[in-house]
Amino acid sequence: MLFQMPVDPDLALRQAAITRVLELRDLYGDFVPRDALREGFFFRGERVPFSSFQKGIHRARQMRGPAALSLFTTPPREGRPAPYADEVDEESGLILYHYRAGRIDQPDNRALRAAHELRTPLIYFKGIAPSRYFPIAPVFVAENDPSERAVLLEVGVPLVDVQPGGPVSPVDARSYALRLVKARLHQQRFRHDVLRAYQHRCTICALRERELVQAAHIVADPSPEGIAAVVNGLALCAIHHLAYDRDLLGIDPAGGVHIARRLREEHDGPMLREGLQGFHGARIRKPRLEAEHPDPDRLAVRFSAFEAAA
What we know:
By secondary structure, this protein is of the alpha+beta class. It folds into two domains: 11-74 and 81-187, PUA domain-like (Roll); 198-309, no CATH class. The protein contains eight helices and 14 strands. The chain has helices at 11-27, 34-38, 107-118, 171-197, 238-245, 261-264, 270-275, 296-309, and strands spanning 32-33, 41-43, 46-48, 57-58, 70-73, 87-88, 95-98, 122-129, 132-145, 150-155, 213-217, 233-237, 249-251, 257-259. Strands 1, 4, 5, 6, 7, 8, 9 and 10 form an eight-stranded mixed β-sheet that branches. The radius of gyration is 23 Å and the shape is elongated. The chain starts with 10 loop residues before the first helix and ends with a helix.
């Protein structure tokens, strides 16, 4: 007699949830605010919450089956250890996720184990910063270890693996999807750490409009020196970031701001005059903590490229 995989009665609801959460991830550039996620998604005319955001394992009341819909990791808080060490394992590519504390047979933990038994797709909300989440979907519970009170999650391919029985996409496609997830997580952590260090202000003009201040690498990511750390980052407003990337603006190892001669000699209205030319010779504002100051050696490498372009 052939073994028959149990059927998940909530698959259509899961498909609607995953489609919507990926739309939100693209809309907000990965960093989805909790308020946007609290609006949930609509399924058959009814609003369904993505998560309670009060506990890590969520099964919506509209669901008929026993398995969870989503998993949630609390964003880190400065000066406090994370309650659970949920993280992407660099070797296996699997995500470690812990059971809820307390009784092993409580409803949330049963919902997590049911997701493993059904091999049904879930959404994983990885907290990156206060009230900001990076959704990873679909994920599947690949392994369940009650003795360790933890499961391992496997990343699937969106729009391909949103079906029962686990991922059906080729291994190389799932590996590529995982690499994208890891790269995006890597960038979001870098962005959060840099903007926090600079108090969400442009290091050149002090603009603090959060929608316009970005985290810039001093040495580009592909370079061996291009680490995703605050010492290799600068908080720059959109115009100064673009000018820095195009070598129209340089920052020397001492923190001095240089505007390319070509721009300094142009006459093109107040934006050029006040937004760029006026900062030639200024000095950048550095983070409060000396350990987070931009690395002079990396600034020197990048400033050499600016001088060569000039």
